[in-house]
Amino acid sequence: MIPLIILNALDGKPLPIYGDGQQVRDWLYVEDHCRAVWLAVLSGRVGETYNVGGLNERPNMEVVTRICSLLDAKAPRKEGVSYAAQITHVADRPGHDRRYAIDCSKLRRELDWKPIESFETGLAKTVDWYLAHRSWCEDITSKRYARERLGTGTSFHK
After folding, report:
1. Which is nearest to 10 in space by CA: 131, 147, 135, 149?
2. 140 exposed, middle or buried (CB, 10 Å; 0-12, 13-18, 19+)?
3. pTM for this predicted structure
4. Residues 15-55 pLDDT 10s
């Protein structure tokens, strides 16, 4: 969701939110995820399973509005209107779970792992990365991923 929202916002396209946007997800900065996997490889017990979670449960709508606020500050629209004006509610998927969460207590307990980034710092770094790599993103979205709603053939980039 995060890449789609950032790229659509910057391109002036709708920011699709399923239903009421109150589906809760556990968010984790990518480098924290990589550190957790690497720690499990190096220090975990062979054959053991370790769940990696961000300890940052947030509703989708909160994540999208936070992205809009970050973009408003870092790459304001020329007309001065907030990116939040692009938020568009779309039909929810049938059977869409209201909450996805993960128990990462074993990873914390056995390997002493916890995320370094907070939700706020990780999201800001993610937005900064997308702003700094616009041409790479354009190349990917023009050739491989056209921001379509995967699994349905429906596009969100119109």
Report:
1. 131
2. middle
3. 0.87
4. 999 999 999 999 999 999 999 999 999 999 999 999 999 99
Q: How far is CA 63 from the centre of its chain?
A: 8
CATH code: domain 2-148 is 3.40.50.720
Reported as a single tens digit per residue, the pLDDT across 131-141 is 999 998 888 77
Mark 23-44 as b/e (b = at least 16 C-beta within 10 Å).
bebbbbbeebeebbeebbeeeb
The structure tokens listed for 128 are 């900064």
Q: How far is it, in rounded angstroms, from Cα 51 to Cα 29?
A: 15
- Backbone φ, ψ for residue 52 (5° rounding): -110, 120
